[in-house]
Amino acid sequence: MITAAIPRPPVHGADDLPLLVRRARLQDARALHSLSLAFIRSGALRARSIDHYLAHAGEFILVTGRGRTPVRGCVALRDEGDGAAVLYNFCVARGSQGCGLGAALLRAAFAEARGRSMREVFTATTSGADLFRRYGFEPAGPGRAPAAWAGALDPARGSEVLARRL
């Protein structure tokens, strides 16, 4: 289980048991894809096939209830080299938003990035910049983000590129 550097009260599910924040496994790929579909349809996330989730399951951190409950949220953390990382595919199921799951995912991603000696984390968002700003993200100036990642962003989506130093 991935833990945050600063202990926080656990987020609880409907059954009043603490939720689990952990690294995704290959068998979670279909659930990650299913969770992401509503956000892909709304335009909040870029379209990714099930093959992406299968090939990159190890990049994902997820939050789920105890036992065989569904994945309620996820974020992927990809190492871009030179101390930089990218957060992508950040989403929390509609019925679970506003309960601290997104914050738990961000704290886990920051802890993981620090543990892997990453110095800066980037993300792109078409909405929801307020959440990222609350967690220390600021607009990234031109040329600051990893070039290959920034170059792959679709300008038609109007994404705002944000960065946070760790």
CATH class of the domain at 20-120: Alpha Beta
The gross shape turns out to be globular
Within CATH, the superfamily of the domain at 20-120 carries the name Gcn5-related N-acetyltransferase (GNAT)
What integer value in Å does the Rg equal? Answer: 15 Å
Spell out the helices and strands N to C: EHHEEEHEHEHE
> Which class best fits the helix and strand makeup?
alpha+beta
- Sketch the major β-sheet: 7 strands, mixed
Q: Order of strands across the biggest sheet? A: 1-2-3-4-5-7-6
What is the end-to-end distance?
21 Å
Give the oligomer, counting copies of the same chain as homo and different chains as hetero.
single chain
CATH architecture level-2 label of the domain at 20-120: 3-Layer(aba) Sandwich
Give the beta-strand count. 7
Share of β-strand residues: 25-35%
- Show unreliable segments: 1-10
CATH topology of the domain at 20-120: Aminopeptidase
Total of DSSP H or I helical runs spanning 4+ residues: 5
Structure, described:
- This protein has helices at 29-42, 50-55, 101-115, 129-134, 147-152; strands at residues 20-23, 60-64, 71-81, 84-92, 120-125, 138-139, 160-165.
- It has 166 residues and is an alpha+beta fold.
- The chain has a domain at 20-120: Aminopeptidase (3-Layer(aba) Sandwich), CATH 3.40.630.30.
- It has a seven-stranded mixed beta sheet.
- A hairpin with a 2-residue loop joins β3 and β4.
- The radius of gyration is 15 Å and the shape is globular.
- The relative contact order is 0.16.
- The model is unreliable at 1-10 (pLDDT under 50).
